[in-house]
């Protein structure tokens, strides 16, 4: 099986989560990991059987150009101590999905969000999965949120939780394949 883990990341947390998910998926097939702004992302998705797609939660959902611009502003504020990822703030998951011609038949979605009540933070992962379904991809497992602190630091144990979720995605993918 060919698996593509594609992600959007502003400050590195979503990238770290995506890499941990890829580690969990490694026993289940050939895994490619790429940022949505990396030209290899489309190629990986086109050849994959499973797409695992994720991004940060901005304003209760997927990022938008205005929220990515805000992240750029935050990164220039020395009081925030945030370093922008090399491929940010370019294209986001929303635009990548809209502009990608071929979406794999199976998918899973994840996000990173602040560790506060879901009602207050929202979550991008449900919106991502909905957009994947509209493109004809079947969800293999429920979307997952991985948590960061209000200071934009990955929560304790979140990388391990991401690896475990990646393993769960792989097992779920196998069940779909065996049907």
TrEMBL record:
Transmembrane segments: none annotated. It comes from the Bacteria. Residues 3-170 form the Flavodoxin-like domain. PROSITE patterns: FLAVODOXIN_LIKE. SUPFAM superfamilies: Flavoproteins (SSF52218). This is Flavodoxin-like domain-containing protein. It comes from Arthrobacter stackebrandtii. The lineage of its organism: Bacteria, Bacillati, Actinomycetota, Actinomycetes, Micrococcales.
């Amino acid at each position: 099986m060919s698996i593509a883990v594609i992600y959007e990341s502003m400050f590195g947390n979503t990238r770290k989560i995506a890499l941990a998910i890829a580690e969990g998926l490694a026993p289940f097939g050939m895994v490619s990991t790429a940022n949505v702004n990396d030209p290899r992302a489309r190629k990986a998705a086109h050849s994959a059987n499973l797409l695992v797609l994720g991004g940060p939660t901005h304003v209760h959902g997927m990022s938008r150009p205005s929220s990515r611009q805000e992240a750029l502003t935050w990164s220039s504020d020395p009081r925030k101590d945030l370093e922008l990822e090399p491929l940010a703030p370019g294209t986001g998951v929303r635009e990548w999905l809209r502009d990608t011609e071929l979406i794999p038949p199976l998918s899973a979605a994840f996000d990173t969000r602040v560790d506060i009540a879901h009602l207050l933070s929202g979550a991008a992962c449900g919106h991502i999965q909905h957009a994947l379904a509209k493109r004809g991809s079947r969800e293999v497992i429920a979307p997952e949120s991985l948590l960061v602190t209000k200071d934009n630091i990955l929560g304790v144990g979140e990388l391990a939780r991401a690896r475990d979720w990646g393993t769960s995605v792989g097992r779920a993918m196998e069940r779909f394949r065996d049907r």
